[in-house]
Amino acid sequence: MTRPLWVALAWAALLAVVAAVAPAFFDPVNLRDLVVRASPLLIVACGMTIVILARQIDISVGSQFAICGVVAGLLARTGLPMPLVALGTMAAGAGLGLINGLLVARLGLPAIVVTLATLVAWREGLRFATEGVWVQDLPAGFQWFGLGQDVGRWLVGCAAAAAPAHTAAAAPSCSGGRRPAAPSTPPDRTPRWRASSACGRRW
Q1: CA 125 from chain center: how many Å?
Q2: Tell me, what DSSP letter sits at residue 26?
Q3: How far apart are CA 94 and CA 2, in angstroms?
Q4: Rounded distance, CA 160 to CA 64, Å?
Q5: Under 8 Å CB-to-CB from 59, ≥6 apart: which residues?
Q6: What is the pTM of this model?
Q7: How confident is residue 136, by pLDDT bands cut at 50, 70 and 90?
Q8: Are 105 and 134 contacting, i.e. CB atoms less than 8 angstroms apart?
Q9: I need a labelling partner for 126 at 20 to 30 A (CA). Which of 11, 66, 159, 197 fits?
Q10: Closest CA to 107 of 117, 119, 94
Q11: Could you tell me if 53 and 169 are in contact, meaning their C-beta atoms sit under 8 angstroms apart?
Q12: Cα(first)–Cα(last) distance of the chain, in Å?
């Protein structure tokens, strides 16, 4: 039995215990609220899953997410429709990721060093640009995509629930269709000496 299957069985057993002890947990409204509250972390976690499967790391995702949030607010405040605001926000996030990717893939710099540097640079740059002030005077349609709280919550919940499915579909292509292997141990090239009792030569 493979390791993912054992994890799935353990998760199913945990859910069964929760269903027996606290059945109200699985109320549709409660599940929707849980997904909506966790949707920002879920989106970031799905992206990090792809990065880790590619045997890399990115610790600047928090700063990237903060910049994308500010970009979304600034674009919405200009009066752009929400679809364009969403596209502009995704373009900003893609641009920040592209910078990290070029530094790691093209220049061959370690991902941990690059993303640590960009984490600090983007965090402090955002703090300098906004002076610690929240983006205010947002239009009424900015929250819940202008669809109202009830419809907007279900929309965000469905989008957040679809993110893991997309990650699972993209995972095989990132890992080459197989589980990433552990780095092999480099061969020990230390000279070994063995004295021969017959002629005293070196082996």
Answers
A1: 22
A2: G
A3: 35
A4: 18
A5: 112, 115, 116, 119
A6: 0.67
A7: confident
A8: no
A9: 159
A10: 117
A11: no
A12: 46
